[in-house]
Give the backbone structure.
Amino acid sequence: MLATARFHGGSPSHYAALVFGLLILSLAVSTQRRAPGSRLAKGFFVFILLANVLSVFHTSGSHFFSGRTSDLNYLLPLHLCDLTSLIATVALITRKPLFCELTYYLGLGGTLQGLITPNLHSDFPHPTYFAFFQLHLFVVIAALYLPLALGWRPRRPLLKTTSRVFFIICGYLLVIYTVNSFLGTNYAFVIHKPANPSLYDHLGPHPWYILSVLGLVIVALTILSLPFTRKEKQACNEDSILYPQ
């Protein structure tokens, strides 16, 4: 078992990972915008794609170095961020509207919070440090790459789109609660709060913090839709001119 220092949020290793992710995102977006068909732009796209594909397996495999191989909480890709990584991979390949919407809203509404308050125990250079940030960084990068580099937009009306995402999240929580009950696990933290300090600590006791989380989901979906509301209004105005009642 590899011995390393315990990870602390706000440490130099935490900020270094965030800066690395911001650098990759900036390079990928600027390259795609300047020369969409260039080999370098395609290379960045493939790099992001492969990082998302490998992140889930990297996360599970890294725990063989941490002595947690018997803990199902770390070996199955059932956390929301794990599933979002797989969804992001499908979104980048197929550009299907539902997968893109889930990547954007889940990536920025959920995974980004994981980057701000990481549920991570081992610091650099432990394998779990790299696995954690690979997974979370590249989900967020994929979520931002879709609108900033590829010009993706959620479907109109936005209220219908966000409602669809919200009910998918509710369905996931119901399913994962059942899974946790059978396996004795804590996927999506619906059984108890994460050990590390996080936003969950301010949302009330169990099980009421789950309702608080759903309330925050609604707020996050609304905020993340704001960049697209102006274009939706413009589209509606254009439709009213082209197709008057």
Notes: The chain has one domain: 12-242. Residues 192 and 206 are 7 Å apart (CA to CA).
